[in-house]
Amino acid sequence: MEIYYVEDDSDIADMVKKYLEEKGCKVTVYHTIARARQALQVCVPTIVLIDLNMPDGQGENLCRWIRGKWKALPVIFLTVRGDSGDIVSGFQSGADDYVVKPFDLDVLYSRMQALLRRTGNVTKNYLSCGGIVMDLDRRTVSDHSEEVDLSAVEYELLLFLMQNEGKTVTRERILEQVWDVHGNYVNDNTLTVTMKRLRDKLGQPSCLKTVRSIGYRMEDTV
């Protein structure tokens, strides 16, 4: 379970982080909304925990932004604001659960598990590398939150590379998987042209590497 925790109180953040890491989770703490947004544009976690009162804005606004990008990504508010109006507002902004401080860590973890039992691990619906995010359910591609319009073959090419992130895939294998699997036999130059169009549309991403005389590799440089 990979968790992003948006919290400006270092003591609380450290306590929650230590507990969840003991449970086998990977936890990254962000002390501002701006840093959390930057991170989400690069990689989609399993779940996001958000404090409502942040130094650079309100957690509700971050939650709305998340909902506009990733409708199924689980979000839980962890906050001292326990009035019924705050709770209602939190759910209306898109939160899946609302936990009032102080809270029992065992209860928090149980609620996280219960939420994931309902939603499943939605990270499998997203592939990300270097700020490029593919939403497999919606078949959309975004580059640092800006949606990019790809042709069907450009999408399939990017998908194959993203599914093999960190691995060098040969030109021959790409031609077989992206074109030949559909019975469309093409020459090597077709891949070169398609790759150039894909790179242009993605703004020449540094994470898309050319391995000279062999093929290509997606590699996160962040």
Task: Give an overview of the whole structure.
This protein has eight helices and 14 strands. The longest helix is centred in the middle third of the chain and has 15 residues, at 105-119. It is of the alpha/beta class and 222 residues long. The chain has helices at residues 10-22, 33-42, 59-69, 84-92, 105-119, 152-163, 171-179, 188-201; strands at residues 2-6, 26-30, 47-50, 53-54, 57-58, 75-79, 97-100, 126-129, 132-135, 140-143, 146-148, 169-170, 208-211, 215-218. β10 (140-143) and β11 (146-148) form a beta hairpin. The model has no long low-confidence stretch (mean pLDDT 91). 42% of the residues lie in helices and 23% in strands. The strands form four sheets. It has a five-stranded parallel beta sheet with strand order 2-1-3-6-7, with helices on both faces. The protein has a four-stranded antiparallel beta sheet with strand order 8-9-10-11, covered by helices on one side.
Number of beta-strand segments: 14
Approximate helicity band: 40-55%
Q: Which radius of gyration do the C-alpha atoms yield?
A: 20 Å
* Neighbour order of strands in the largest sheet: 2-1-3-6-7
The secondary-structure element order is EHEHEEEHEHEHEEEEHEHHEE
Uncertain spans, ≥5 residues at pLDDT below 50? none
Biggest sheet descriptor: 5 strands, parallel
Which structural class should the secondary elements be placed in? alpha/beta
The average pLDDT score comes to 91
Q: How would the global form be characterised?
A: elongated
- Determine the number of helices (DSSP H or I, runs of at least 4 residues): 8
**Percent of residues in beta strands:** 15-25%
* Distance from first to last alpha carbon: 20 Å
- By oligomeric state, this entry counts as single chain
